[in-house]
Structures are given as structure tokens and as C-alpha cells.
Amino acid sequence: MSQMNALLIILAGAFGMVFFTEMRRRRALRGFWDRACMGIRWRRRFPDSPKTEIREFLSVVVGAFGFRPSRRCCFSPDDKVMDIYRALNPSVGLPDDMELETLAERLEEPYGVDLFKSCREDITLGDLYAQIKKSAG
User: Fold this and answer.
1) What ranges do the domains of the chain cover?
2) The whole model's pTM is what?
């Protein structure tokens, strides 16, 4: 086998792996993207919070995960942070874009919340928002 053929096989395998991972990611994220606006759930769970505060928090979340700002309405207070992370990074062992570290940094600076200190496997966006409200109040 020539070096050129070997290189083509390696490139085809790498392309296939990237393509497969991207298809898994899109399928996993579709569960979030196909939802109607979750604003009503946020307002029911946090009736005393102004919409602008909730939107600001969700903007931090979608920014940390690298999603478009318009996607913030797709997330519910019951969504687990790790479910979002795993939907974005479906393949174990591949490098990620450090979304959790970015989220932790963006929550600590303005809100004083240490994500890694308070993080549990099942922590939800609503739990994080409640911590922010508690630290502000």
C-alpha cells in the first residue's frame, strides 16, 4: 500500500469520526431545540424574578456552551447541566471546548457562584439560578 493510499484511509476515517460525532450531537441537541419557549416554566418556578434577570442568566449559560443567543429560550429550569454538556459532547474521550469551565468562570465573576464547589451530577439550571438569587439576596 502506498503512503498516499494510507493517508487517504486515515483522512477518511478521521472525517467519518467527525461526521458521526456531529450527527450524534445534532440529534441529542434536537431535544432542546425542538421545544417551545420555556419562559413560562422559569416564571412559574421563579415568580419574583424579573424576566430580564432570567434572560441574563440564560444568556450566560448559552454563551458558555457556545450556542446562539436565540437558543436561551430552549432551556428549562429542570434541565440538568450535565445533560446539556453530554448532548453537546456525545463522544467520551474526545476533547471538548471546556464548556463547563467556561460556565463556572462566567457564573463566578458576576454572581459569586462556584459551580465546581456546589456542583452535583444532577444539578439543574434552576438550581444554579436559585443559588445566584440566594447569593444576591
Assistant:
1) 3-136
2) 0.79
